[in-house]
Design a protein that fits this description.
single chain; alpha/beta; 5-stranded mixed β-sheet; 5 strands; about 40% helix; globular
């Protein structure tokens, strides 16, 4: 029984071979093909020997707008980003994604997973920008599933009755600072804490491990 329990307390067993990576980003608009990706943060997760999901390692980059990209003034006003500010320390899309992808590939191997899956709040948006940027810079070894995601907005709607990140965190008794919101780094951390709470809450309620494995 100990061997089965230990096996189930792994990322690969818990998420059907997927390695979950929490991501948030800031952009210069809503169209992944023409609007610039300006900031991205990612957080890997780990599982304790007792099967509790925890935050692990963080990567964070400010990104230079790609050549020919469209910067929507309303989007910049919303996130407060000045793409031309030299103090941002921005890097290219390639450098940011290559570094994140390398770390993800290492995590997949370390945790015996098959591939990675993006965890994000309203995940389709983040997924579309990551995929478009990876294609744009020619990164062939994209570790993420091409269409599947774990969407914390949907999960929070089910578990907490809230779909807005700030309200979902508050409902889950997770502190949320609105003055730091719309920063990729802060929102990624809050999304990661929220996702861990949702997964761990299901375990505390007796929903995992399943009594019968398929």
């Amino acid at each position: 029984m100990t061997e089965i329990t230990n096996h189930l307390n792994t990322l690969s067993a818990r998420f059907r071979g997927f390695y979950p990576i929490v991501i948030d980003l800031e952009t210069a608009g809503f169209d992944a093909n023409i609007n610039a990706l300006l900031e991205i943060a990612s957080i890997t997760l780990r599982m304790t020997e007792d099967g509790w999901l925890k935050l692990d390692k963080t990567l964070h980059f400010h990104i230079k707008p790609f050549v020919g990209s469209v910067l929507v003034p309303e989007a910049l006003a919303f996130n407060g980003i000045d793409p031309g500010n030299p103090l941002r320390g921005a890097v290219s899309e390639y450098e940011a994604l290559y570094t994140i992808f390398q770390a993800v590939h290492e995590g997949i191997k370390r945790h015996y997973c098959n591939r990675a899956i993006i965890v994000a709040h309203n995940a389709h948006f983040d997924h579309s920008f990551v995929m478009a940027a990876a294609d744009r810079v020619g990164l062939k070894r994209n570790p993420f599933h091409p269409f599947a995601t774990f969407d914390t907005a949907a999960l929070s709607g089910l578990v907490l009755g809230q779909t807005v990140l700030a309200k979902a965190c508050i409902a889950a008794n997770i502190p949320f600072d609105n003055t730091q919101a719309h920063s990729a780094l802060y929102d990624t951390k809050q999304t990661a804490v929220l996702f861990c709470e949702l997964v761990n809450r299901w375990k505390r309620m007796g929903g995992w491990p399943l009594t019968m494995q398929y």
